[in-house]
Amino acid sequence: MIDELFTVLGQVGVVAVFGAIGAVLLRRDFRLGWFIAALALYVLYDGLLTRMFFAIPNYPQESSWNWLGKTMSLAGMLIVASLPMFGFRRVGLTVEQRPNFRTPLIVFLGLIALFVYLAIGDRSGIADFETIAFQWTMPSLDEELFYRGVLLLMMNEAFTRKATILGAPIGYGGLLTSLLFGLAHGFGYAEGSFQFDLMTFALTGIPSLILLWLRERTGSLLLPMLGHSASNGLFTVI
After folding, report:
1. In this structure, what is the dihedral angle of CA atoms 223, 225, 226, 227, given to the nearest 10 degrees?
2. What percentage of the chain reaches a pLDDT higher than 90?
3. How many domains does one find in the chain?
4. Is the pLDDT of residue 1 over 90?
5. Domain span at residue 31?
6. Three-state DSSP state, 187
């Protein structure tokens, strides 16, 4: 429990530092209230994901994967997304795509091809049924709704200036969501010290930038969710 608390505080601290830098550089386009709320939401999200920092046992108890935590965080973010200041469409919970869909579709198919190539090279074999079911569903639903949905909306409200990159409006807040996504996988506290795995950070943070672009370009979480499912799931069936 203590390790996870230090982990989430450390991750929030790193993003807070980069947020402060952005606030100085983009002070005319920065809203402090939204930024603080976004960091607070991450603490809540992590608390739900870790079942109140592992105070609540996993269910089913014999499960190898965090079904309960993922369900709790997904449900929590759906409730947040339903609030009037958010709304399902604003967080990307829509199948409707913005015009000129061909370019993001090409990028998406290229991403899938890359994951297939990496999965073939991995040679870890076909996983058990529970692992396949979990990896094809829960990470993409839960993490995309949070990182490219609710959190992205809040960070975009905190940093309102955006630049158009290949047709997608990308802001400093969006980059912070990818930074936090990488930190969530590659930076933590264990055995009395903070530990940073650069390779894990890069292998999660860089693809998250592509998922961010797909989200902003299409206005929907559909392709990011499908891409995320493939990135996790293909390694379980090839």
Report:
1. 80
2. 97
3. 1
4. no
5. 2-237
6. strand
